[in-house]
Task: structure prediction
Amino acid sequence: MSDHFPALIIVVPLLSAFLIAATGWIRRMLCFPIAVFAMAVSLYSAVALLLKVVSNGQVIYHLGGWSPPWGIAYHIDYLNSIVLIVVAAVAFINLLATRSSVALEFPEKLGPFYALYVLFVTGLLGIVVTGDAFNLYVLLEIAALTGYALLGMGEGRAPLASLNYVFMGTIGASFYLLGIGYLYLATGSLNMADIAALLPEIYHSKVVLLAFIICMTGLFIKMAMFPLHLWLPDAYAYSPSASISLIAPLTTKVMVYVMIRIALTVFTPRFTFASLKVSTSFVWLAAIAIVMASILALSQRSVKKMLAYIIIAEVGYMVGGLWLGNRNGITGAILHIINDAAMTLCVFLAAGNLLFKLKHDSFDHLKGVFRKMPFSMAALVIGALSIIGVPPTCGFFSKWYLIWGGIDAGQYGFVAALIFSSLVNVVLFFRIFEIGFFEPAQEHHSSDSTPVEEAPIEMLVPLMVVAALLIVLGFYTDDIVNNIIRFAIPAGIT
Amino acid sequence: MDDILSILISKYNYWGYIILMMVGLYAMIIKKNLVKKIIGMSIMQTAIIFFYVSVGVKKNATIPIITHGHNGAADIVRASDYINPLPHVLMLTAIVVAVATLGVALALAIKVYRHYDTLEEDEIHDFLKKQVE
Result:
């Protein structure tokens, strides 16, 4: 049983998705427990795999017993075991946290919603766990297609925003597929480890260069890197909050993981950083992304849209961190995948709670909200402090590593962009806090009489757990870096 | 000049896929009608499928089924006699993905049409502007 965790982590949610779709027709109340069961199994397998990796090193699983060049292998090493836990944990917590808002928003569609939810997580877990480049494409599309559907389930502008996301996402995935095609043309293999072993002899080939550029372009679209980010704000702002608090923390982060995987494992660091002279320009692109996304965030008047632009800035952090090409920068990028998933989950769950009670998330509706919803707002404050990067919270530590890496690499433009974005985040969040704390609610003239109208307790408890997790992650940063991330970075990088 | 011409002619399959892909991208970017955009998306995905299929083609080769047994040196399997089946098999999956994407896109287009009564992007934007005012 324990030998098969790499397969179970995919198979259990995949089969549960079909089970949920079927039970949705018969007995709608059973959908949620089955989804919880599937996510719990995934989380358990992810934790077991991490422990296994920490004690024994890399785990390689051959699906169906076929060995790599012919069969599909699942590789679990330090890098993806930690990302696996992030994906499984975010999915599990979000599932528990959004139960009431799902029941409110789609009372008739519980079956389809949970089936899509579980399939989406299956796709992401598969992307992370697989060691086969084409397998990755298929799972990428599973995650993307279910993501489009989850976003498109909303009312109003959601289907249009989701359709634009379909166009952009398909271009991104097609570019990735094309890049893999060129790699296959050059090496005759689709297994990542195999490609990495075959590539060094043909590093100077134009085909390999083209494969790399096309792959990266596709992934940049998928992760909403700044000039290619246009699909993200609308898709995230107009969609149901239950799906967005799942998709926002995970999609971009998993795509950043894929970028790191392609850049460091498939194309080795020697190709990516030494023989290919693009690192500096990518870091500058990331710096521009951070600055522009922060400025665009300033002009937004609703909480969700502002958060969407903050996510685009955060993607810039991670891309820049990788392309700094030194140990601190990459540590910061990997650490930021973990921290940013937790922070984004926290702020989007809080925004979901606000939306659940207030029905609007524009800034004008937030007056007096601190009195009305003290706990949700407290969690939002912690999430905000983490995004800004205030010390005890986890956001500080990844930003610290990124800035350190930027100074090591002599990329002061990137360092300046990081600091600028932190300052902008202060302005962004304190504007919300000011409106929520000092401006009295409209309907009550004396603010003392505003009754506390919190979201239901089953939405609050997971939110509080996530908020506490931000601080816990901050305290354990050293352990995460020394025991896991240190080994995730290839040896050649100093 | 002759070199360029011979490259153009000998690699015609790649030129074919590039042109198709650009047609698809052009339609997705320029066209204002959502269904035309969806058609462009489909064309682009098909272009990539063509690319993979053309990678797998070999002249004077046959399907990869060994019919003559394994007895003796005379019957040694020569790789040049057989087409590599892998790209084609991969494309079966990619076709399924493309069909699924098309389905999702069309379903969303229906939802958009029900909400705005039009599939022209300009009209939708006008509608949204009026809503804001």
The two ends of chain B are 60 Å apart (CA to CA). The mean pLDDT of chain B is 84.
